[in-house]
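User: We ran a pulldown and think these components assemble together. Before we commit to crystallization trials, I'd like a predicted model of the whole complex to look at. Sequences follow.
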Amino acid sequence: MSVKKHKFWETQPVGQFKEVGDSSLPEGPIEPPTPLSEVKQEPYNLPTPYEWTTCDMDSEDTCLEVYNLLKNNYVEDDENMFRFNYSKEFLRWALRPSGYFRSWHIGVRAKSSKKLVAFITGVPARIRVRDEVVRMAEINFLCVHKKLRSKRLAPVMIKEVTRRVHLENIWQAAYTAGVVLPTPITTCQYWHRSLNPKKLIDVGFSRLGARMTMSRTIKLYKLPDSPVTPGFRKMELRDVPAVTRLLRNYLSQFVVAPDFDEDDVEHWLLPSENVVDSYLVESPETHEITDFCSFYTLPSSILGNQTYSTLKAAYSYYNVSTKTPLLQLMNDALIVAKQKDYDVFNALDVMQNESFLKELKFGPGDGQLHYYLYNYRIRRDLKPSELGLVLL
Ligand SMILES: CCCCCCCCCCCCCC(=O)CSCCNC(=O)CCNC(=O)[C@H](O)C(C)(C)COP(=O)(O)OP(=O)(O)OC[C@H]1O[C@@H](n2cnc3c(N)ncnc32)[C@H](O)[C@@H]1OP(=O)(O)O
Ligand SMILES: CN(C)Cc1n[nH]c2ccc(-c3ccc(F)cc3OCCn3ccnc3)cc12
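Assistant: Here's a predicted model for the assembly, 392 residues in total across the polymer chains.
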């Protein structure tokens, strides 16, 4: 039982720590929707020196401001050696799916300097929880400038994005965090597969194994020069209907998963240079599409290293295997990532990922990623293998 005081989160419609284990509480929304006329019409108050701003990600200048705020102030690993460095094109992709609301791309500026000092976003998504498809907001990119931390700005930003989501008649949300908050629906481990072990050791991401030399380590992680599966190729626009069928069928086995339609698949899974890569297996005999794998590109800045400034990382996204063994499919994903000069391939232990992690020489990461639902209780917390949702 956690004794931590969550002064803000205790006021929110989320599972509270003291309720953990009380399976008498019904599954579903914690609070009913409010009539739209009763939703607060005006923004929450910020401390005097600050003002709200809506960030138009189509604007090159604004997108650059958001990029720089995150590049300098967003998530770091536990040892503060790396910081996510989401690219501008990645941010535009992540924040503008079909049906997005510009008003959910919320910034805070200092009134005097007009500098962007904080950010939080939502994008609309249809998330299935068991048999219920729920319209939700996926909340992400919460960031307060390092100089403005511990001033209780985050709760104001969370309340403001909640208010703007409510105005669109959406009452649930999904989000993930590396920190424990009331109350995770599941807690995942992340794993790393070295592709460029020399660089990873040089920058301190990995350590040379005991009784291992560098050349032995390079050999250990060596991969073939090209994919081994016949019919393995990049996804194209014409594949959207087949990939949608394949993915919907695969995701139906999980307790929580996105309810992707063809529009969603076109946006989230069609390859986009330096943002998202997706491949499929088209049977050379029948031309049926039998398997699919994808990863997104999220570099991390390397803090305080003279030689290298950036870690090029691929993150496992959605993968479906119906004919090709998942192990072989994911090994082909590793092979193309290595071909494209990624340093490391990361994966969470969600979906069926656990079945390939150890065998493909992934090593465990040093932290966890917690998944949360807002205003939606589920009967008991899930195993990572019951989760079919990957947030960026
Ligand atoms: C119906 C629609 C609903 C939509 C909304 C749904 C909910 C969406 C929720 C958001 C989901 C975002 C998902 C996402 O973006 C992915 S998680 C990544 C979050 N961002 C970072 O870690 C970047 C670096 N850190 C920062 O910028 C600051 O430390 C942040 C801004 C994180 C906190 O700023 P700060 O200056 O360090 O702290 P105060 O302002 O003084 O505030 C302290 C309070 O904030 C609570 N806190 C700390 N970290 C949090 C986190 N990651 N989520 C939620 N709450 C978080 C903390 O527990 C405390 O509340 P408590 O006293 O109750 O414990
Ligand atoms: C998901 N999305 C919301 C971003 C996000 N927020 N908080 C996080 C905490 C961990 C991971 C994560 C997820 C998968 C993974 F393989 C490695 C990870 O972090 C490694 C540690 N690290 C942090 C920064 N640079 C390296 C992502 C996130």
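The first helix runs from residue 60 to 73. That may be worth checking against your pulldown data before setting up trials.

User: Thanks, that helps.
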